[in-house]
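Give me the fold.
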Amino acid sequence: MFFFPFSDENPTNKKPIISWLIIFSCSFIFLNQIFDPTYIVEQTFLSFGMIPAILFGHSELSGHLKIIPPFLSIFTSMFLHGGWMHIIGNMTYLYIFGDNIEERLGKLKFIIFYLVSGIVAAFTQAIIDPTSTIPMIGASGAIAGVLGGYLVLYPKANIKVLFWFIIFVKVFRIRAFIVLGGWIIIQFISFNGSDLNSGGVAYAAHIGGFISGVLLINIMKNKIAKKNRTLNGSVPSSK
């Protein structure tokens, strides 16, 4: 059985330039991993992935792997992906939900929102297992923040979801609060049953990013609303 959101019925009036740039950057880096014969994937993940034990000073990388300061790996890890399903899933979710958040916040605030969600996600995962030597990679944490923001702003938007079971294939229109609410519930359930030492999906990062997105969007939308009220109040009336 397979469920996959692939579109929403929530059009925007502005082009989501930042979302497109993130999608392009992540895709370019991933394709370089796949098709460059000189590319050493494991070394790249160790050098640019976020490793909790390295971040908190419990361990150190070998000399030739020390390319950037550990704190910068929080950012570089957001642009690395481990496989086709990883990159396709993340970029599809950003494509569906990122444009609405970007339009609502504006480009600069969206960048801040995205990066802060990713930072919180990374630290959530690192704090849960601070001595882990497994690199955390992927934009999932930051994109989880986008999902949290979307749930707050557009809970009743229709999401087109592909359902596939053996030979039965159908597209359903489901409210965002069901799709995204169901998604975060699955993350909590999966985290509760996961083995932190086995690698795999960073469920704690998803949860941290999602909660960060919910909190951030409430703070930022209130500031935008307040600014708009101030601007509207300062416009002189015409006679």
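The longest helix spans residues 203-234.
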